[in-house]
């Protein structure tokens, strides 16, 4: 009998041998093919010539170079100019500033001193930057600086430049950049010490006082540990600080009380807007204490002997003594209800305000040009000028404050705040204040000073 087990093993070994033999033949054939291919490639590749066998040709050419004297002459023919910049220092005079700028030009100095616009350039305010362009001999080609006359006035560039044998001065709007800065500080001794420590401009500190003066007496109410945060505009030119702008929002923690204020643009108002609490209530008082900017009370709201009739009677207003022609301001926003002559009042204007408030201004010498019945006026707008018309013994303003047509003493009445926002204006206000609320929230950490800038 055939041993099936041995037969199976023999077949297995035979198959393995066949496979090994086939694999060896395939590898051998592949090696021969690749070898032949390599020789074939070598046989058809061109042989590059040796670099040393390439032809070489020398080229020689004479170049005409200018002499040193010729080069100096050419430089002299084209006038060189030099630019410099200096900051005005305390105690600087025009001569010292021009000397530091490399200006040696008596004609230019004389022009700057005598020309009205050029002279205003050299107000020599410390910190102001002045740029000059001069020739190699110090002759002035151009002198420029940036000017600003306050928070609401545009920043402008003033340039004095050479024009033929003389000079000219040009004034134009400066290309400036507005930024929004945010800072916070803690009161250690005084408000201004805190603002100085936090590098907050004095103009911003003064605005803070105005904003919160109806709630905080900054002379006596401040306590060590009080904190404030403020968001305000700044203006820059070429990376240099020019001035501070308007305070956009602020928060003041005075003891246990916290006061907030935000600026809201009102295109229809004379001031362009006003400050409000985050609830939409105006922080501005509805009425001025005095319709005259500078005056004194010559007769109060009381019983008195009438200077003309000689009889004792109630004086229903307050008299402010002032020279003839002194501007009279509207005490609050409203509409002209009467403008004309009215017996003992002489020339008088009556303004109807919101709710049931009215004010009267008597003995005017004349009215402002736009004042007529039905005209709208804003708080602080000039409506007329002090005079002595009607029953008057001398130039003064007779001012009356009425509630429901009943006279009240304007010096002691509890003056309300201006009318709060409502309707569509309130909705616009809320959309705007959400950003300012977020900015003030960013300043909440109890750091000594935080500053973030957004362009």
Explain how this protein is built.
This protein is of the alpha+beta class. The chain folds into three domains: 95 residues, Nuclear Transport Factor 2, Chain: A (Roll), CATH 3.10.450.350; 119 residues, Nuclear Transport Factor 2, Chain: A, CATH 3.10.450.350; 113 residues, Glucose Permease (Domain IIA) (Distorted Sandwich). It is 24% helix and 33% strand. The chain has eight helices and 23 strands. Strands 11, 14, 15, 16, 17, 18, 19, 20, 21 and 22 form a ten-stranded antiparallel beta sheet that branches. Strand 7 and strand 8 form a beta hairpin. The longest helix is centred in the N-terminal third of the chain and has 41 residues. The C terminus is likely disordered.
Q: In total, how many beta strands?
A: 23
Counting DSSP H or I runs of 4 or more residues, the number of helices is 8
CATH fold annotation of the largest domain:
Nuclear Transport Factor 2, Chain: A
Please report the first level of CATH classification, the CATH class of the largest domain: Alpha Beta
Helix content: 10-25%
Give the helix/strand class.
alpha+beta
* Major beta sheet summary: 10 strands, antiparallel
CATH architectural arrangement of the largest domain = Roll
Global Rg: 43 Å
Ranges where pLDDT stays below 50 over 5 or more residues in a row are 6-11, 32-45, 301-306, 447-455
Mean of residue pLDDT?
A: 79
């Amino acid at each position: 009998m055939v041993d099936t087990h041995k037969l199976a093993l023999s077949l297995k070994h035979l198959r393995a041998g066949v496979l090994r033999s086939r694999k060896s033949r395939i590898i051998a054939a592949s090696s021969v093919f690749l070898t032949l291919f390599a020789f074939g490639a070598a046989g058809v590749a061109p042989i590059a010539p040796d670099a040393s066998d390439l032809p070489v040709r020398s080229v020689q050419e004479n170049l005409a170079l200018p002499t040193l004297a010729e080069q100096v002459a050419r430089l002299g023919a084209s006038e060189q100019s030099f630019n410099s910049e200096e900051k005005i220092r305390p105690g600087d005079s025009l001569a010292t500033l021009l000397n530091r700028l490399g200006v040696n030009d008596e004609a230019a100095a004389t022009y700057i001193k005598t020309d009205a616009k050029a002279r205003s350039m050299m107000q020599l305010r410390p910190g102001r930057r002045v740029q000059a362009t001069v020739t190699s001999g110090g002759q002035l080609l151009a002198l420029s600086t940036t000017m600003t006359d306050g928070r609401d006035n545009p920043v402008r560039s003033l340039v004095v430049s050479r024009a033929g044998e003389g000079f000219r001065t040009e004034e134009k709007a400066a290309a400036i950049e507005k930024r929004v800065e945010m800072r916070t500080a803690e009161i250690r001794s005084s408000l201004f010490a805190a603002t100085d420590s936090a590098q907050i401009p004095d103009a911003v500190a003064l605005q803070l006082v105005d904003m919160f003066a109806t709630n905080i007496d900054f002379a006596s109410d401040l306590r060590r540990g009080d904190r404030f945060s403020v968001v305000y505009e700044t203006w820059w030119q070429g990376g240099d600080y020019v001035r501070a702008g308007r305070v956009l929002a602020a928060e003041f923690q005075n003891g246990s009380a916290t006061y907030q204020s935000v600026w809201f643009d009102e295109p229809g108002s004379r001031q362009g807007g006003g400050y409000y609490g985050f609830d939409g209530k105006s922080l501005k008082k509805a009425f001025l204490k005095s319709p005259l900017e500078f005056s004194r009370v010559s007769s109060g709201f009381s019983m008195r002997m009438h200077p003309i009739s000689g009889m004792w009677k109630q004086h229903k207003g307050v008299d402010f003594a002032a020279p003839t022609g002194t501007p009279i301001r509207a005490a609050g926003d409203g509409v002209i209800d009467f403008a004309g002559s009215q017996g003992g009042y002489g020339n008088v204007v009556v303004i109807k305000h919101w709710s049931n408030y009215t004010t009267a201004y008597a003995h005017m010498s004349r009215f402002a040009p736009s004042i007529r019945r039905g005209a709208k006026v804003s708080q602080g707008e000039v409506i007329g000028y002090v005079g002595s018309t009607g029953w008057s013994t001398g130039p003064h303003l007779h001012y009356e404050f009425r509630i429901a047509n009943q006279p009240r003493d304007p010096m002691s009445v509890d003056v309300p705040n201006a009318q709060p926002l409502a309707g569509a204006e309130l909705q616009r206000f809320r959309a705007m204040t959400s950003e300012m609320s977020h900015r003030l929230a960013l300043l909440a950490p109890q750091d000594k000073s935080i500053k973030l800038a957004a362009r």
